[in-house]
Structures are given as C-alpha cells and as structure tokens.
Design goal:
This protein has 26 helices and two strands. By secondary structure, it is an all-alpha fold. The protein has a two-stranded antiparallel ribbon.
C-alpha cells in the first residue's frame, strides 16, 4: 500500500473525532467509543495487528484512564475541602483585593500559577489545580477549562522537570545508535549536553510564540464568555498581558540557556508570579476602576458554560475570616510536595517509583504482547492532592462531617465524568500501538507523518509543529509525541538539508501546542470542573490558539533554518504577518468605545 493511502487510513480515527466530537457536538462519552471502534478496526483489518495486542493496548488504556481519574478525584476533593473550610472565599477576596478584574485573575492563575505547576508536575496537573481554583472563584466552568487548556503550550515542553525533553526527545533520538556520534561530532560529547542544546532552541521558539498567549487567554475569555461577546474587552489590557508574558518568558529562556531543561517552566512561572503580583498590587498597568471587567450575572450565563462543580450565588456572597496565607496553605503544600518529590538532587523518585511490587503496580507483557502497564500511586499527583486534603482538616479545622460532604460531593462529580476517559484513552493506546502487524506497516501516527512529509518537501518546517501537535492531540502527551516523532523529524531535516536539531526543536514545540486541543486532556480538565459532555465545545474554542501557536512556531522555525537566504524568507514573513495582525487588533480594539457592563 502506498504512503498516501496509508496516511489517509491513519487519519480516519482523527476524522471521526473531528466530525462527531467537534463538528456534531457529540459528548466524548458517545464520540470516543466510535473513534475507538474505527482505530481498532484499522489496526486489525489494515495493519493486521494481532487481536491480543489490540486488547492489550485497550487494557493499558483503561489502566492509564484509571490513573487520570485518580488525579481528577484528588483535585476535586482538595477543592471541595477548601470550599467546606471557607478557604476559597478568602482566596477569592485576596484576588479581589488585588483587582476584581477577571482578565487579570485569569492571567495570574492560569498563565503564571499554571506554568509553575506545569514545570513542577506536568501531565495535566495545571488543569487539575488551576481549573477548579478558577471555578471556585466564580468563573464559568467552561471558561476555566478553556483558559486552562490554552496555557498548556509554552510551559509544556519543560513540564515535570523537563520530562518531554529529557525522556521524550532523549528516548526518541537514542533509538538510533549513531545519534550519540552525531552529537559528539557537533561538539557535545555528553548526551545531556546535546539535549540541553536542543532545549535552548525549544525555549527560544516558545518564548517568542508565548508572548501573545496571555493576550489570547483574555481575548478568548471575553469573546466567548463576556457580556459583550467581544475580543475587544480582552485586548484592552494588552499592556498588562504582554508584561505578564515577558515576566514569565524572559526568566524561562534564561533558565533554559544557563541551567538546562529541568527548571524553565517552574522558575519562569514562579518568578513571573512574584513580579506580576507585586506589580498588580501597586497598580502597575492595571485597569482603572471604571474599566473593571466581570462576567455577567450567573443567571445570564449560557447553560453550556455550567458544570456540576460550581459556586452558587449564595456561596459567592459569603465571606470568610480566614487569613490569606492560611487559606492558600494547602496549595502551597501541594506545590512544595510536587517540587520536593521531583527535584533530581533529592532523588526521591527512586524511592517513590521503586520496582517493589508494593510501590509499582505493574502488568508486564499484557496478553503476551510487548505492551506493559504500570501505576505508581506514591508518584501520582492524585496522592499528593488527597494527602493535602487530609492535612487541610487540621490546617483549617474541618469537622469530620464537613470532610465527608467534600468527599461525597467529589465522588458525585467524578463518576459521570469518568465515562469519556474510559473510551478516550484506549482509543489513543490502540492508535499509537498499531505497529508490529503482519502487514509490516509503521504505527498509524508515523504513517500519517510520512504521508505529510512526502507532500511538503523543503516546506516541512511549516508542518513539523503540526505533526508534533497531532502526536500530542492523539496521545495526550508531549513526551509521548516526542518519543514517536523525534527521530522521524530528525531524519526529515537531514533529507531536506537543513539543521535537523531545529526540526527536532519544532517537534517539541508542536507537541506542546497539541496539548491545547488534546482530547483526553480536555476530557480530564472538563471532568475536574464537572463539565460533562461538552468537550467538543471546549475544543472548538481552543482551535484558534492552537492554530496560532503551531503556525507561528512553524513559521519561526522555517525562517530560522532558512536565514541564510535572507530575513525576507517566507517563514519570517508569515510570522511578521501574525504579529502585525495582533498589533492591528490591539490598536483597533483600544480605539473602539468601551462598554462597561452594569
């Protein structure tokens, strides 16, 4: 079978998702079983993968789904515990004391706090922390989920202490035994030095594209969830949004350059938080009192925005006497535990991920296949969330009945939201484990990428980020996308006679951008907010930020690898056009008359 036909067949499960989940607005609990059937059918009938391996991939998917559900449960439980103690009321008041403006709040919580949590833990944890916090502060559930998804771009390549680079790219490239020799020939005799070299390129591209992410977050929020349904309201705080972007991306780039891939997102988010909160408290670049932006009254919200996890109107009118530090202390403990357990210097990972059967629950070679599954509960952020919720009983003086209400409410929110994950993750596992069949074809993602590469030729850098994004879209992980495609991307770079390390960097950046629309991340984030059955609506609202990020970074990459042909190459021209579009709309929206909601 030729490359083009294989690519089209590989695309069928994704087309099903696009049509039924995004286009026809089916809930994920209905669309993903259909996508699973198509993926499994392709694997068995076309790729001729043994039925035992398809079942093994399915079981592995169910186990992975279980680990996600465990994290979601912990995140919801912690939020409900803080609601029972009154801490959420104090946190909301703390933000209101800085500013009641929701645009500023979403930048601080989603962009900066979310980047710090991504750098600490990764793997969807920012959504598990930031999304329920925003819901608890009175954001519509869908607005919180959309914001939580959009920021999963710039910080993702350095999430979980650099895992997408140190594990994803490293594993992908090292599959070629000659790669170490290539690195040494480039002047990097140590493999870690070579990875750090690639990571600096990744950070540079991210830092440039990430400049507009806070502005996109506010613009998307006011366009879809504001009283006026206008991008203008979000773009009117462009100065603060760009300031917050640079407060994160400048230290992020410096850390990547001088310290390596472990800490850019964590330090960038942490330093950015310190800078931006201090500036906001002093009134720097803050909206005037008559320009404060709020959501409309809850009674005017679209029903689609609401999740089962929300604050009632009565709750939002209550107040708490709890001090701000005490109220924030559980989240501070979460952040501290995430950092401590993942710091390489402490090496707690070797204990918490030990091969001991009480610590690592594993199922090797499921049904005799080459697929293995495992779960390490002590390493899971879910355990940290649950532990901190128990610690909060003492910190905030909760009664047992109060904690019982938090527990029962969390279970009620979790159960209906789990259905979609039970089908989403197995579909992903079948899709990426489709190699090894008697037909002799590469796994579906690689077959699809090869089909695209055969059509694009020297224009490949424009498309490299979209392939990385596709990998994250289906796999739910930048790390997995990098494992699948890094060596392939390197090979394409060599074939079209450009620096292949830049193409690998574009893969990593594209894999990060794919998290914005990744199906099972959307399902998981929606589950945290109790937003069941509306996953397609979330993806439709995040398609524009994904398209911006993948196109902007691909254009920058094309411009960089072809800079020898002059600065006026098509890559830099497209990137300049995108920047010009932002500048035009900032100018346009800030000249328009402002309509302040009652």
């Amino acid at each position: 079978m030729n490359t083009g036909t294989l690519a089209i067949l590989s695309l069928l499960p994704i087309i099903v998702v696009a049509i039924f989940l995004v286009g026809l607005r089916w809930p994920a609990s209905r669309a993903m079983p259909l996508a699973y059937v198509v993926a499994a059918g392709m694997a068995v009938l076309v790729w001729q993968v043994p039925g035992a391996k398809v079942m093994a991939a399915t079981v592995n998917g169910l186990i992975v789904a279980g680990t996600l559900i465990y994290i979601i449960f912990g995140a919801i439980l912690l939020l409900n515990t803080l609601q029972q103690s009154g801490a959420i009321l104090s946190i909301r008041k703390g933000f209101s004391d800085i500013t009641p403006d929701r645009r500023v709040q979403v930048i601080i919580i989603a962009w900066l706090f979310g980047s710090f949590i991504e750098g600490s833990a990764g793997f969807g944890t920012p959504a598990a922390v930031a999304v329920p916090l925003m819901v608890g502060l009175g954001f519509p559930a869908m607005a919180a989920v959309v914001a939580g998804m959009i920021i999963q771009s710039t910080p993702v390549s350095f999430g979980a202490m650099g895992t997408p680079i140190l594990v994803g790219i490293s594993t992908g490239l090292s599959a070629d035994p000659d790669m170490a020799s290539y690195a040494a020939a480039r002047g990097y005799p140590e493999w870690d030095m070579f990875l750090a070299y690639i990571a600096t390129k990744v950070a540079l591209i991210h830092a440039m594209a990430g400049t507009f992410i806070p502005l996109l977050v506010t613009g998307i929020m006011t366009r879809f969830f504001g009283p006026e349904r206008s991008f203008a309201d979000g773009f009117r705080i462009w100065k603060f949004a760009l300031f917050a972007a640079f407060a994160m991306t400048v230290p992020y780039l410096l850390v990547a350059t001088f310290l390596g891939p472990e800490f850019p997102s964590m330090f960038g988010g942490m330093i950015g938080l310190a800078i931006v909160i201090s500036a906001a408290r002093s009134g720097f670049l803050m909206p005037a009192d008559d320009e404060i932006w709020q959501f409309a009254e809850r009674s005017h919200w679209d029903e689609e925005w609401n999740g089962s996890l929300h604050q009632s109107a009565a709750d939002l009118e209550q107040h708490s006497d709890m001090g701000l530090i005490r109220a924030w202390s559980p989240y501070l403990v979460v952040a501290a535990l995430l950092v401590i357990t993942r710091l390489p210097a402490l090496d707690l990972e070797s204990l918490l991920r030990s091969a001991h059967p009480l610590i690592t629950w594993s199922w090797p070679q499921i049904f005799g296949s080459d697929i293995s599954a495992s779960f390490q509960p002590l390493w899971s952020p879910g355990t940290i969330f649950i532990l901190v919720s128990l610690i909060t009983i003492g910190l905030h003086g909760l009664s047992i009945p109060q904690y019982g209400r938090a527990l029962s409410g969390s279970l009620r929110t979790l159960l209906p939201a789990s259905t979609a994950l039970v089908f989403t993750v197995p579909m992903v596992q079948v899709f990426i484990n489709s190699s090894g069949g008697t037909a002799g074809y590469e796994q579906m993602p690689i077959a699809l990428a090869e089909g695209v590469a055969s059509l694009t030729g020297s224009a490949w850098p424009f498309f490299a980020t979209f392939i990385g994004g596709l990998g994250a879209f289906v796999a739910g992980s930048n790390t997995v996308s990098n494992m699948m495609f890094s060596l392939f991307q390197f090979g394409v770079g060599e074939r079209i006679l450009i620096d292949p390390t830049w193409v690998v960097a574009l893969q990593a950046v594209g894999g990060a951008s794919g998290n914005i629309i990744c199906v099972h991340n959307v399902v998981a984030a929606s589950a945290v907010a109790g937003l069941v059955g509306k996953e397609g609506a979330v993806i439709r609202k995040t398609l524009l930020p994904f398209a911006y990020y993948a196109l902007m970074t691909g254009s920058l990459g094309y411009g960089i690898v072809n800079v020898g042909n002059g600065l006026l190459n098509s890559g830099f021209i497209v990137a300049a056009a995108i920047v010009a579009a932002f500048v035009y709309h900032i100018h346009k929206f800030n000249r328009a008359p402002q309509l302040v909601p009652d």
